[in-house]
């Protein structure tokens, strides 16, 4: 186990639209949406009806498979609409926000004197237990299990990701409180990874009572899955939990103030963003609340909750995800370029394989869009995946095993170690233009179904 990890493989995507380090607006939403689809493995049971009043911290949904896991409202207000899809699948619970916020009082806690059961109970009843993600598979953590260890990544290398030090640098006390609380839930300790590029200047190098790691390298070096693979790989039968730094700060605020506070700085980014910057907001805000950052009069903007590689396309009517503090705005690339693939002098097009002379401008940023310049093709055997994935697995064989539905090969080639986001760079460079993340997602779903 190394405490100083240097990753040689990876790829940083040079895309325009990084948010300036300034907060230009506080979003006061009229409507927020809670989305069960934000939580993998959740079978929701609705606890409210349209017209019900809720406080910030009031239960709105529960997990049918584990009724103790509650999903609570981030705001006080009135349940305005319950949105369902095919076969009455619950898609959203929309809440009209009160002008003045009221909170459920969970009580200020002294973490040092709490037992593991008391920490667990506080997280469950407050609705912050879903912040804990269980690997393998990236599902809701099982409250009955004790994980091998808990892993936290204190930085992100994703394209245009929110600057962690800027958005959470003043939450060090809350982060420390949360770390001390979560350490009671495992015997393997809390592994905390910071970036090797600013390990001495980031405020999070001061976090105590953790197993500290410095990680250097290109994306996806900031992904917690990549860090786990290089620190203590997940084997069959093992369980680990992960929590994002954003949610870690929310857990700390819960214990320190007794209130559920999910407010966050959200980076509005992307090539078509007008003056990209940060806003103070809540999960579940509507994209309409960010109207000052885009012009969608032509209907050609793609709204992504998260980063451009692994975020979700939510549309102009969509809402920010529970775990996200970034919105990426991209042009919908529908134009066709004649003889584009044989033009070497394409200085405005980026190629990870140096197919164009744009590689002569290594610091240039590109106005990338959603155009893949072609459709899915025959699966090519190549080492291109291995060059951008700093994990000790065989990505191309894992993808093929997922396509074939071969559980034994999926186990052998690393399905326990990955989530779709970990192979996002593989999808970006794939010459066959396969939807690698969707393939991995299907493979994980099959594993969950067959191994249950």
List the main descriptive attributes of the protein structure presented here.
single chain; 452 residues; alpha/beta; 7-stranded mixed beta sheet; 6-stranded mixed beta sheet; 9 helices; 20% strand
Strand order of the largest sheet: 1-14-13-12-15-10-11
Number of strands: 20
CA-CA gap between termini: 31 Å
Structural class: alpha/beta
**Overall spatial form:** globular
User: Main sheet, how many strands, which sense, barrel?
Assistant: 7 strands, mixed
Uncertain stretches of 5 or more adjacent residues: none
Helix content: 10-25%
Let me know the average pLDDT. 94
Taken as a percent bin, the fraction of beta residues is 15-25%
User: What Rg do the Cα atoms give?
Assistant: 22 Å
Give the H and E element order: EEEEEEEEEHEEEHHEEHEHEEEEEHHHH
- Please tally the helical runs, counting DSSP H or I stretches of 4 or more residues: 9
List the helices and strands and how they pair.
Layout: E1 4-6, E2 23-26, E3 31-34, E4 44-46, E5 53-54, E6 59-63, E7 66-72, E8 77-84, E9 90-97, H1 116-126, E10 133-135, E11 139-140, E12 150-153, H2 164-168, H3 172-182, E13 190-195, E14 211-216, H4 224-231, E15 240-242, H5 245-257, E16 264-269, E17 277-281, E18 301-305, E19 312-313, E20 326-331, H6 395-404, H7 407-412, H8 424-429, H9 436-451
Parallel strand pairs: 1-14, 2-17, 12-13, 12-15, 13-14, 16-20
Antiparallel strand pairs: 3-9, 4-6, 5-8, 6-7, 8-9, 10-11, 10-15, 16-17, 18-19, 18-20
Helix pairs in contact: 3-5, 6-9
